[in-house]
Amino acid sequence: MISEEKVLKLDNLFKSFGSKVVLDGISIDLNKGENLVILGKSGSGKSVLVKCIVKLIEPDEGTISVLGTDLAEANNKELNALRIRIGFLFQGGALYDSMTVRENLEFPLARHHRKLDQNELDSKIDEALDNVGLKDAADKLPSELSGGMRKRIGLARTLILNPEIMLYDEPTTGLDPVTGNEISELILEMQKKYQTSSIIITHDMSCARLTSNRIAMIRDGKIYKSGTFDELKSLEDSWVKSFFV
Hints:
This protein is α/β, with parallel strands linked by helices. The protein has helices spanning 46-53, 76-84, 101-112, 118-131, 147-159, 177-194, 205-211, 229-233, 238-244; strands spanning 6-17, 20-31, 35-39, 61-66, 69-70, 86-89, 165-169, 197-202, 214-219, 222-227.
């Protein structure tokens, strides 16, 4: 259920690298329970925008409010506490190659929930693996898994801390269409089960169609158009239409 509550507010963000302007006055909100897809060509600033949200990159100007906290005013302790409430699924899944799947999932739990005993840890890990349909993969190494399976495990590891906001960076990149659609369906299932609010960075139109409640299109560092998939698809705009062919 999408509410009117804003869990994320980006106001007039600017970011340049040398003479290259990447973000040029972007303002956007994310509602609680909403899946917002950020769509744009390669190099349009999509990933930079997401990294600003978790303060991996600082904007040159503008304000970012996440779950009621102004990032510019947050100290390190507040920032670390906030980051636990935000899940980030990287393009490659970012699993530890030397750890089994179970150890990969146990690592963030043991770090952030030190009071959990082994039975509680195992229960949470089993539930997370069950959520992504990979309970039988617990004792395998990432190298033994397909790209789609690694993506699923990466999602399980991110969701195991019950984040309130999910950030997906190209979740279907490098996957075949069938596996990509499975990941998109999984994003929808997790939205419904955990009422997460998500930003999904993608240029995969199938992923955008399946996962989005709303789409914001970035062009030349600005929000060019926004609306639902069907609203944007119906626009008589040659640049927008280039995404829907």
